[in-house]
């Protein structure tokens, strides 16, 4: 190998050797090779603190049209400012691998979304403890509840909410990357969520009207995300091995439910094959035979060989190659428009208002499970006031539950929401409550008159 060759996996003085480029002037018996890598092991990152601003605390300060005037986004970018997503069947070993990969690359790890992420609020209230007060339409299942009764009508509502939260989590990953310059390793994305919908439909857990609604919603929302992952890694694990891994995990609600069987996992695997064909157009992809868990270091070496900044523009948009080569096109379109454009995208993914506005307002009248009657809605709002929030005040302004009185002085701290917080992880954790409106609010601010302990749907 020439002096310009890549020394892979070696350690020198406790440090990993990094790829180098040999100048043409260097004498060598071989032709020098110019090498360029866009993702490197964390020990090879050369960050200059004098020219690189510290990470922007977007969760504390947000990032809006005022910040855009002086805090520039691309100054924080480095080789590893990339979005990598990990995909695979249930029981494939994604979580362990994703954590290790994030650590190797010095990236931020974001675990797969779970319903528990939105069922416990800032005050420690677990909504599941209050389901006895809520109409059935508002008793969203967690995974244990789903496995116990997968054909329940609320399975449809659960999956609808999971998709929206995956959609929002993907935006969170982009917001983190643009505000801090740190790359992100994310488990699953809204792009691949349909593999579970297909499996649920196959086993008749959800109906055909929801399938139609879901795919329409998916098309609209994914168009809004625009920026696809730089790299998608798929862990190809045989169904039998997945079943074996699930059994080893020892979660009785998974193994004893009858939901996760060969048929269910096979539909997920087949759907993933369709997904990877779709993903290949937009992102770089790596597929690994994961029947036996591979070595993360070897995967890092494979990633280091990819040029995740490379883009042949003439191959896109129906040009040469029939428009099939669209990898990373959106990322490069932003670069062509100039560094100021990155600031606007940073606002877009940090505030999430334009991203999420109206995507939850598609007509649902044909999907019976998603319908919510006005009476159910009134009862839910009253139950929240009486049992959960202990009064008329919403999240962030509830002095009884420990919120600071100073919060009352804030307004329009973030576009599209009334809470004082500059950031929220998930709309359906708390922010949704400010958008819920009951006609009885005007005459019953505390909910005590509206709340009916003998409500028929209770």
TrEMBL record:
Query: Listed GO cellular component terms?
Result: mitochondrial matrix
Q: Please list the cofactors this protein needs.
A: FAD
Question: Is Flavoprotein tagged as a keyword?
Answer: yes
Q: Does the keyword Cytoplasm apply?
A: no
What broad class describes the main subcellular location of this protein? mitochondrion
Q: Residue ranges of the Deoxynucleoside kinase domain?
A: 84-308
Question: What processes in GO biological process is this protein linked to?
Answer: mitochondrial electron transport, NADH to ubiquinone
- Transmembrane annotation, as ranges: none
Q: Where in the cell is it found?
A: Mitochondrion matrix
Q: What domain of life? A: Eukaryota
Q: Which keywords accompany this UniProt record?
A: Electron transport, FAD, Flavoprotein, Mitochondrion, Respiratory chain, Transit peptide, Transport
Q: What does this protein do?
A: Accessory subunit of the mitochondrial membrane respiratory chain NADH dehydrogenase (Complex I), that is believed not to be involved in catalysis. Complex I functions in the transfer of electrons from NADH to the respiratory chain. The immediate electron acceptor for the enzyme is believed to be ubiquinone.
Q: Which family does it belong to?
A: Belongs to the complex I NDUFA10 subunit family.
Name under which the protein is recorded: NADH dehydrogenase [ubiquinone] 1 alpha subcomplex subunit 10, mitochondrial
Species of provenance: Plectus sambesii
Highest lineage ranks of the organism?
A: Eukaryota, Metazoa, Ecdysozoa, Nematoda, Chromadorea
